[in-house]
Amino acid sequence: MPMTQLGARAVVLGGSMGGVLAARVLAESYAEVVVVERDRVLGVSTPRRGAPHTVHAHGLHARGHLILEELFPDLTEELRAAGVPTGDLGEMRWFFNGRRIQPAHTGLVSVTAPRPVLENHVRNRVAAITNVTLIEECDVLGLVATADHEQIVGVRVRRRTDPAEAEVIDADLVVDATGRGSRTPAWLDELGFQRPEEERVKVGLAYTTRHYRIRPEMFDGVQSINPVASPAHPRGAFFGQVAPDVCILSLTGLLGDYPPTDPDAFLEFVRSLPVADVYEAVRDAEALDEAVSFRFPASVRRRYDRLLRFPGRLLVVGDAFCSFNPVYGQGMSVAAIQAMTLRSHLRLGRPPEPHRFFADLSRVVDTPWDISAGGDLDFPGVEGRRNLKVRIGNAYMARLQYAATKDPEVTNGFMRVAGLMDPPQALMRPSMVRRVLRHAIRRPGPGPSWRDTTPAPAVE
Ligand SMILES: Cc1cc2nc3c(=O)[nH]c(=O)nc-3n(C[C@H](O)[C@H](O)[C@H](O)COP(=O)(O)OP(=O)(O)OC[C@H]3O[C@@H](n4cnc5c(N)ncnc54)[C@H](O)[C@@H]3O)c2cc1C
């Protein structure tokens, strides 16, 4: 039941993670919430055309997990019962700069569901809310505004089942959650408003992914094995269990070094990772599918918060607002935090005011953007200004990651920040700085690649 009713209908554009989380909180304050999604999604737990990135490894950070559990009580148990592995974020096998960090019990839950499975469970919960309607296979064509363009009063859509007819859905509030390809900047232009400035960090990233049948010896009791890209070892991987007998391997390559899809070349890329663990696990493993690739040219932050004029009754959330380099695993958790921000605006008892909402959303995005954009600037080939904050941050982070190879308490602090539980400043507390400097006064060099010490296998 709605709490304080703020309007008859809110319409959410896009029924992926950002959209359904927004719908969940809007349902508390609008008599009806309509989610418009161009794909068929209800009951779908496999990757789909409108969200091709969802075939690749998606970890849910601790903060995102806590918010989902708050919005959808017992979701974690439901996921576990469905065979989704969960574990402690700090107890996975993490490698930074070619070195394994010490495992630590953090108490932070990591969920490694296949992304479409997680999305399906969350969407089912939202679709079951009595005042939420999900319209599938329906394209959003544009916004409908008042004659003076000052207020948005609906959206134009076309159902794929009836492609000849466009129709208008009236709305008291429209929330754009259509992802990176959001057309709100173009729609603003058409309505006589400025487009938001875009901050971009070009990373030239690609993920290439295959699934394998799990063999008991592959993971040796850990949930996932993740050699994360670093400037000295820019090739990375996320290798994790996603179902009782299935694991996912997503390879990551930066600045145009795209992991190939050809099976032999894929395996060769795995062999080129700085640590042997993933190669040893998959070289004889049974692949369950062909490799697929996804390119992610740049992280993009749209500065809606800086626009002086913006139409009323329109908001933007999720990747449409800010899309981060995915290797930091932040997008779904940030979408969840944004949903909580939206809820706090709704609880003020009046329809959300775009300027205030975007100002708050921007504050939400600041830290994950600094983590992602700042971390990317540690790679010499990534273009961008390295101000003092970025240089000091990266210099300290390299020391901290090295210290984490010696001290589980450092792992714990690092995982709390990476999991968006604590702000980065927590890593600057005197007790933590002492632990870090005890092991790394100077910036440590990279760990050696395993191939530097191991002869290449004989080629037949
Ligand atoms: C390779 C990769 C790996 C990632 N890994 C992680 C990870 O490990 N952890 C994490 O938290 N995040 C990760 N992310 C980020 C995460 O996927 C996104 O942040 C998250 O999906 C939120 O996105 P969204 O719902 O805002 O947009 P999207 O997921 O892009 O969804 C947009 C939706 O809008 C629909 N749509 C678009 N246009 C229209 C239209 N005109 N009409 C109707 N419907 C429309 C689409 O069909 C789609 O369903 C990753 C991203 C990528 C690319």
CA radius of gyration: 22 Å
The percentage of residues in β strands lies in 15-25%
Task: Let me know the average pLDDT.
Answer: 95
Q: How many runs of DSSP E, i.e. beta strands?
A: 18
Give the oligomeric state of the chains in this entry, treating copies of one chain as homo and distinct chains as hetero. single chain
What general outline do the C-alpha atoms trace? globular
Bound molecules: flavin-adenine dinucleotide
The SSE string, one letter per element, is EHEHHEEEEHEEEEEHEEEEHHEEEHHHHH
Q: Please give the share of residues in helix.
A: 25-40%
Terminal residue distance: 68 Å
Major beta-sheet overview = 8 strands, mixed
Neighbour order of strands in the largest sheet: 5-4-13-14-15-12-16-18
- Total number of helical segments? 12
Low-confidence stretches: none
Structural features, described:
By secondary structure, the chain is of the alpha/beta class. It has twelve helices and 18 strands. The strands form four sheets. The chain has an eight-stranded mixed beta sheet, with helices on both faces. Strands 7-2-1-11-17 form a five-stranded parallel beta sheet. Strand 4 and strand 5 form a beta hairpin. Helix 8 runs antiparallel to helix 9. 47% of the residues are buried. The mean pLDDT is 95. Bound molecules: flavin-adenine dinucleotide.
